Amino acid sequence: MAVAVVGTSSSAETEAASPLTWSHTVPGGESNTCLIVGAVIVLNAGEPVGTVTGVTYNDLSMTQVVVANDSFSGSVFSRAYLFRRLNPSTGANTVSVSYTGTFGYVAAGAVTFSGVDQTTPVSNTAANSSGAGTSTPTTVTVTSVVGEWTIAA
Q1: What is this structure's pTM?
Q2: What sign has the CA pseudo-torsion 143, 63, 103, 48?
Q3: Alpha-carbon distance 30 to 34, whole Å?
Q4: pLDDT in tens, the chain (153 residues)
Q5: What are the residues facing 83 on neighbouring strands?
């Protein structure tokens, strides 16, 4: 079975207190599903970075896959996260992203995939912020095999 996108949703950008919540629908009738939630915290200049402390779907915890800092001149000015949940509950349920700290805004989105390997849903992760805030493009090399997808946050 090939991996396929079967559902997407996104939050509104917010400057409000934690948590950020929105509804995401996982369709029924799909097999080997995996929900991926991406969240980003963007800072105001000179403020310490905020932190995502957890993500839930239908009140069930999700597993953090990777976090990447985007920095310039040694100061972090945004942080991106990816979380996953295998075989999430079907139907419309609430995604909740909890966070602490000072920030400019928080935004997030969710994607549901079907046909995902349930034993090793995420085989590799990579992060690179070496070119952030400059005219130098940031590149990341991710090792994968035929049938795998690459997701960026």
Answers
A1: 0.87
A2: negative
A3: 10
A4: 788 999 999 998 888 778 999 999 999 999 999 999 999 988 776 666 688 999 999 999 999 999 887 766 666 678 889 999 999 999 999 999 999 887 888 999 999 999 998 988 887 777 766 555 555 666 777 777 777 677 766
A5: 37, 64
